Amino acid sequence: MASGRLDLDGNPIKPMTICMIGAGGFIGSHLCEKLMAETPHKVLAVDVYNDKIKHLLEPSSLPWADRIQFHRLNIKNDSRLEGLIRMSDLTVNLAAICTPADYNTRPLDTIYSNFIDALPVVSVSCCYLFVQFS
Fold first, then answer.
1. Within 10 Å of residue 1's Cβ, how many Cβ atoms?
2. Per residue in 7-42, pLDDT tens?
3. In the CATH scheme, what is the code of domain 17-123?
4. In 1-134, which ranges are continuous DSSP H helix?
């Protein structure tokens, strides 16, 4: 875990809680691995599957065991998502809702529109995400 990281103004970066929607997918699972290995941040991992991050969740002896929690939710119809987002300092939306009916009737940004103004949200859809923590 990295320590002594500074922001662009030279101030120490404090650990934060990140709600990662879609943490069990390709990008989300790799981002979870990177966050656990290289930062002190806590992740509330949200997805319907955890196969790709199971290795981060099972061994309780790993140094990050107390910094990652998996929440099995279907974000389209589970009211618990709002509580997880409210508990977080940052929400990263990597959800893949892939049916045309979903896009036409309920865009991803409306899923949590009631409280989106109060929270920083990063939404990634059908694009490349490059993250470097060093």
1. 13
2. 899 999 899 999 999 999 999 999 999 999 989 999
3. 3.40.50.720
4. 26-38, 54-57, 80-86, 100-105
